[in-house]
């Protein structure tokens, strides 16, 4: 028993309301069965993870019988694995965990086995081991202690009240670079299991009843979240793998549709235009007969010519004169390349602002300047960066741009023009090295804050609280 020593024993009926706060279960009905030695909790999707020396188990609990839509994801350390024989004589090996049981302010640790109790009217069983010497049982009584209410699961505070549970997270990445290492490091520091998955080595079983993702000859386990770090060269296949995870119901930090749209420069600018987000004047045409009109639309030379799938400044050319612009456009057409023609914002002076958006906030910003003689400010091309204070308008523009693509994590590149901020690009896999070193902020940690908030249980919609207690 806990803390306050009570002279009188705690009396339980054959059915009582209990709480398991360590698992994020504030209200459950439990059947008290002195004929059973071991306690049991109804759990599904039971899966082990973690190191062999300290294994853990994740599982899902449906605390309200008959309402399978309410799923509380839980995790705990495994303290034992034992054979349990049910009342019908069937034996089963079950994982055993330890958690605190709370009844009317009384709290004490109990051992609980995890098993699928589907079809049972009560989703928890309290056996003899959980009762102890300070608990008396009145087998003919019911609800001797104060009743709780399933309506607690309808509270908007249930996400914040849920304990920080261990997550299993996949980072889809082909590269062992700074960003991938930081995501693994930060996740493991928080106690999560983080696995790096080579996107191109994934393959998919696509079917209506049980879609799966396979890797190296094995079905991948159920992940709580996927962090996509999909390179531009494998965007089509990488987003197909991501769609498979979305089909499985896995939380993906950035969705496949947003990544696909942001990678195609033409599509991306059309998305920005549809949302009335400021950007440099942009033109696109397929016919060589339209070259002169393309140049006129963006205000003439100097202008920028961009390949539609350019990344890290590659495939971006500054044409300083009309003749140079015509030559570059003719050359790109000769290569059968798809490209945009874009206004050159002179007043930006070769500088842009990278805003790192996580969730619905700009969490860091840096001003990037190109190397001497280079109009491109990409750090990969020798540019430099310093931390910068951005305006309210710039902040709002960056957040709006990320939301336009449905991205939870995005690098939004802005130009400072005489008519306000102009969005150059929305990057769905922004690098972490430059922004973390420049801002001195733990960006990887902020990404995990976003993940942890999303994968906590959502509130249950309870129509009639009176009927929820039945």
UniProtKB/TrEMBL annotation:
Family: In the C-terminal section; belongs to the RimK family.
GO molecular function terms noted in the UniProt entry: ATP binding; metal ion binding; ribosomal S6-glutamic acid ligase activity
Gene Ontology BP terms: SOS response; translation
Domain called ATP-grasp: residue spans: 269-452
InterPro entries cross-referenced by the UniProt entry: Asp_endopeptidase, ATP-grasp, ATP-grasp_RimK-type, ATP_grasp_subdomain_1, Peptidase_aspartic_dom_sf, Rimk_N, Rp_bS6_RimK/Lys_biosynth_LsyX
Annotated SUPFAM superfamilies: Acid proteases, Glutathione synthetase ATP-binding domain-like
Record-given protein name: Probable alpha-L-glutamate ligase
GO CC field: cytoplasm; ribosome
Species lineage: Bacteria, Pseudomonadati, Pseudomonadota, Alphaproteobacteria, Rhodobacterales
Cofactor(s) essential for the protein: Mg(2+); Mn(2+)
PANTHER family: RIBOSOMAL PROTEIN BS6--L-GLUTAMATE LIGASE, RIBOSOMAL PROTEIN S6 MODIFICATION PROTEIN
Superkingdom per UniProt: Bacteria
Any Pfam family matching the protein: Rimk_N
PROSITE patterns membership: ATP_GRASP (PS50975)
Keywords: ATP-binding, Ligase, Magnesium, Manganese, Metal-binding, Nucleotide-binding, Protein biosynthesis, Ribonucleoprotein, Ribosomal protein
């Amino acid at each position: 028993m806990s803390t306050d020593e009570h002279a009188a024993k705690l009396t339980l009926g054959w059915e009582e309301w209990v709480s398991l706060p360590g698992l994020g279960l504030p209200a459950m009905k439990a059947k008290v069965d002195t004929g059973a030695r071991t306690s049991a909790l109804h759990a599904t999707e039971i899966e082990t993870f973690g190191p062999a020396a300290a294994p853990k188990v994740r599982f899902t609990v449906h605390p309200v019988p008959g309402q399978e839509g309410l799923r509380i994801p839980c995790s705990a350390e495994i303290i034992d694995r034992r054979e349990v024989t049910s009342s019908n004589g069937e034996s089963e090996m079950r994982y055993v965990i330890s958690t605190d049981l709370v009844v009317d302010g009384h709290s004490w640790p109990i051992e609980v086995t995890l098993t699928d109790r589907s079809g049972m009217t009560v989703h928890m069983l309290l056996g003899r081991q959980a009762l102890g010497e300070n608990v008396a049982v009145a087998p003919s009584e019911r609800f001797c202690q104060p009743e709780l209410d399933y309506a607690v699961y309808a509270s908007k505070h249930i996400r914040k009240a849920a304990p920080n549970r261990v997550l299993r997270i996949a980072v889809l990445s082909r590269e062992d670079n700074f960003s991938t290492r930081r995501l693994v490091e930060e996740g493991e520091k928080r106690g999560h299991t983080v696995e790096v998955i080579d996107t191109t080595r994934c393959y998919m079983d696509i079917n209506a009843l049980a879609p799966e993702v396979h890797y190296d000859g094995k079905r991948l386990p159920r992940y709580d979240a996927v962090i996509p770090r999909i390179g531009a060269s494998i965007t089509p296949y990488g987003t197909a793998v991501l769609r498979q995870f979305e089909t499985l119901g896995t939380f993906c930090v950035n969705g496949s549709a947003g990544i696909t749209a942001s990678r195609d420069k033409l599509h991306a600018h059309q998305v920005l235009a549809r949302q009335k987000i400021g950007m440099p004047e942009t033109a696109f045409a397929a016919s060589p007969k339209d070259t002169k009109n393309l140049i006129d639309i963006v205000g003439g030379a100097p202008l920028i010519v961009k390949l539609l799938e350019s990344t890290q400044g590659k495939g971006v050319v500054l044409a300083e004169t009309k003749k140079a612009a015509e030559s570059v456009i003719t050359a790109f057409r000769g290569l059968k390349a798809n490209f945009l023609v874009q206004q050159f914002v002179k007043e930006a002076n070769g500088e842009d602002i990278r805003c790192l958006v996580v969730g619905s906030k700009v969490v860091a910003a840096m001003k990037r300047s190109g190397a001497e003689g280079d109009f491109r400010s990409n750090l990969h091309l020798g540019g430099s960066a310093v931390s910068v204070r951005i305006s309210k308008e710039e902040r709002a523009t960056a957040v709006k741009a990320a939301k336009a693509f449905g991205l939870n994590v995005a690098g939004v590149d802005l130009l400072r023009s005489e008519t306000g901020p102009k969005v150059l690009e929305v990057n769905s896999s922004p690098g972490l090295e430059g922004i973390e070193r420049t801002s001195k902020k733990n960006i990887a940690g902020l990404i995990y804050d976003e993940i942890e908030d999303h994968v906590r249980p959502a509130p249950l919609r309870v129509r009639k609280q009176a009927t929820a207690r039945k």
